[in-house]
């Protein structure tokens, strides 16, 4: 304990007292300087004795002070640790506050949109019902009502595009899907028997939907009506299997003629007689005539009766000439084709 306290006392002697002691010592006579070490030793012994006496007298107090100092050091260490943690937490809190401050405009905007949505909850509820109403109209084939609902939703989206931008994202896909389903349903109707007024109504409705360009709509119209014609011809060929070849090809030609005439008439009525329509229409006509001529190549050699063959040729020429009324005369294709068969038949007769 004394060894612990003694250095503490020695450390308390500052440099000024030491300098003062040296000046006093050097100012004394030589005889006094000789006695100085002994005198210092005596003082040291006296100081040590006093220290021992002090320690013995205040032993418990010194122990308590020593323990208190140790405890204070421990507490100061804990305080330092807690301060470090607090500093880290304060830094994190500051960062969170800055982030919150940055996001405040977004929060306010969301709150404003929520309030606007609440103010227009009636219209939003109507929009929620629009898809179901459109689907019901579609099942009942009430296409005009379905279009009116589509136009209403588009106007509502346009009107509230800035105030409620999320509404369009939420509902537009559903409404667009129903509109596409309506478009597909109308196109599928064109692949079935359709009279002119109904065909015009379908084309008009498809134009109002607006998903198809004019060129695509024309091409799809011809394609779907061609599907109907194919189904009609294939069905007829199956029903005419047991008939003789002349009757079979004659009925096939009549069905093709009336079907093509109907499709061309519907096309011209729906889209008008315009030079821009010639390419689509003429390509399709050439395709149909090519298939028909392939059927003739198979059937004509099987007809041995000259009068029946003549009747078939006249029917083919009338078929070509009748299309002149609608601007699609293909006599220039069929006449050389029939001439080649006539020559071949004539050679065969001479040979026999």
TrEMBL record:
What superkingdom heads the lineage? Eukaryota
What membrane topology does the annotation report for this chain?
Peripheral membrane protein
Q: Please report a single Pfam family linked to this protein.
A: Dor1
Gene Ontology biological process terms from the UniProt entry: intra-Golgi vesicle-mediated transport; protein transport
GO annotation, cellular component aspect = Golgi membrane; Golgi transport complex
State whether keyword Ligase applies: no
Q: Where in the cell is it found?
A: Golgi apparatus membrane
- From the record, give the transmembrane residue ranges: none
The answer to keyword Membrane applying to this record is yes
Sorted keywords for this record are: Golgi apparatus, Membrane, Protein transport, Transport
So what family is this one in? Belongs to the COG8 family.
Q: What is the name listed in the Swiss-Prot or TrEMBL entry for this protein? A: Conserved oligomeric Golgi complex subunit 8
Organism ancestry: Eukaryota, Metamonada, Anaeramoebidae, Anaeramoeba
């Amino acid at each position: 304990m004394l060894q612990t306290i003694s250095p503490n006392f020695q450390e308390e002697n500052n440099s000024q007292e030491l300098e003062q002691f040296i000046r006093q010592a050097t100012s004394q006579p030589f005889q006094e300087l000789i006695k100085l070490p002994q005198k210092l030793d005596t003082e040291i012994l006296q100081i040590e004795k006093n220290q021992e006496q002090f320690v013995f007298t205040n032993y418990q107090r010194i122990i308590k002070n020593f323990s208190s100092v140790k405890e204070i050091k421990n507490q100061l260490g804990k305080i330092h640790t807690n301060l470090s943690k607090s500093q880290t937490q304060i830094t994190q809190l500051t960062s969170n506050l800055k982030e919150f401050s940055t996001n405040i405009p977004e929060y306010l905007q969301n709150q404003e949109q929520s309030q606007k949505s609440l103010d227009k909850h009636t219209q939003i509820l109507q929009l929620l019902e629009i898809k179901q109403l459109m689907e019901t109209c579609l099942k009942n084939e009430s296409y005009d009502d379905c279009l009116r609902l589509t136009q209403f939703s588009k106007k509502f989206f346009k009107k509230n595009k800035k105030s409620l931008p999320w509404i369009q994202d939420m509902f537009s896909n559903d409404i667009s899907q129903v509109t596409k389903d309506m478009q597909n349903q109308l196109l599928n109707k064109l692949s079935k028997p359709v009279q002119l007024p109904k065909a015009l109504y379908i084309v008009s409705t498809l134009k109002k939907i607006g998903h198809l360009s004019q060129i695509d709509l024309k091409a799809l119209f011809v394609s779907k009506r061609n599907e109907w014609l194919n189904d009609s011809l294939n069905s007829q060929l199956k029903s005419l299997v047991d008939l003789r070849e002349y009757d079979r090809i004659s009925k096939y030609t009549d069905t093709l003629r009336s079907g093509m005439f109907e499709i061309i008439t519907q096309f011209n009525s729906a889209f008008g007689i315009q030079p821009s329509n010639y390419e689509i229409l003429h390509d399709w006509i050439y395709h149909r005539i090519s298939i028909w001529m392939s059927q003739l190549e198979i059937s004509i050699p099987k007809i041995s009766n000259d009068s029946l063959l003549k009747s078939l040729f006249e029917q083919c020429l009338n078929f070509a000439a009748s299309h002149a009324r609608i601007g699609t005369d293909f006599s220039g294709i069929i006449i050389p084709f029939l001439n080649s068969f006539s020559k071949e038949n004539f050679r065969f007769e001479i040979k026999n």
